[in-house]
Design goal:
Elements lengths: L16 E2 L16 E4 L7 H9 L4 E4 L3 H6 L8 E4 L6 H10 L6 H18 L1 H13 L4 E4 L6 H12 L4 H9 L1 H4 L12 H8 L3 H15 L2 H7 L5 H11 L5
Parallel strand pairs: 2-5, 3-4, 3-5
Antiparallel strand pairs: 1-2
Helix pairs in contact: 4-9, 4-10, 6-7
Family: Belongs to the protein-tyrosine phosphatase family.
Protein name: Tyrosine-protein phosphatase
Pfam families: Y_phosphatase3 (PF13350)
């Protein structure tokens, strides 16, 4: 694949990137400087804020849970925040597993992550549908993020790219860029083995595949899921394309 580099370096966020430039439906490319994905925005420097202003960001969508948002709140001048909370579950499930005497290994950590992605589809689809509703309102530049910008944000990005006709291998490429870009925070030592933590703090193809397989199993495929669960009927899909795909040459 010959792909552009979507990363935009910031001092206070490590996984900030532009979804624009990927080739979507009918060979039309996603418009630049309209859709951005990121880790959380609570540690942006003054220079970062200036850069977001230069990108003309007007909206953020925050998938973090309520406790996450309270712990690391942010305000950006001239930017409207939309909270679409999806509560984190992996850390608590890992602690529960260890409390039951089960070892947290790379394999069990991967299984926890895969179940988390299944649950996104089974229990949190309305939040992703709210994101699409915001996208359909207008094309004002928007950043969607969670804490690390890898799981909740990663599935949201995959759904957006897929809806706009980006090929599955390119969708996976964008998803896996987190492993190159995201800088894990420095945390005090805990009880979890480092090998398992590396799994939790990164992404693997099997994580996203677990969500996509659940979409297939429960909804009969991505197309019916986007139409019925994300609210993207023919008219909405046409509007989404008109807002976020560049005109054909």
């Amino acid at each position: 694949m010959n792909l552009h580099n979507p990363s935009i370096p910031l001092l206070g966020a490590s996984n900030f990137r532009d979804l624009g430039g990927y080739q979507g439906r009918d060979g039309r490319r996603l418009r630049l400087r309209r859709l951005f994905r990121s880790d959380h925005l609570a540690q942006l420097s003054p220079a970062d804020v200036v850069q977001l202003q230069a990108l003309q960001v007007e909206r953020t969508v925050d998938f973090r849970g309520e406790g996450e948002r309270r712990a690391q709140a942010y305000t950006l001048p001239g930017v409207t925040q939309h909270a679409l909370p999806i509560e984190p579950t992996v850390v608590q499930r890992a602690k529960d597993m260890q409390a039951r005497g089960q070892a947290l290994t790379p394999e069990t950590a991967a299984a926890l992550m895969e179940q988390t992605y299944r649950d996104f589809v089974l229990h949190n689809s309305p939040r992703f549908a709210q994101l699409f509703a915001l996208l359909l309102e207008n094309d004002a530049p928007l950043v969607f993020h969670c804490t690390a910008g890898k799981d909740r944000t990663g599935l949201a990005a995959a759904l957006i790219l897929s809806a706009l006709g980006v090929p599955p291998d390119v969708v996976m490429h964008d998803y896996l860029l987190t492993n190159q870009l995201y800088q894990r925070p420095a945390l005090p030592p805990g009880d979890a083995p480092e090998a398992a933590l590396r799994v939790i703090w990164q992404v693997q193809p099997s994580f996203l595949d677990a969500a996509l397989q659940t979409i297939d199993d429960v909804h009969g495929g991505l197309a019916p899921y986007l139409q019925r669960e994300m609210g993207l009927g023919p008219a909405e899909m046409q509007r989404l394309e008109s807002l976020y795909l560049a005109p054909s040459r």
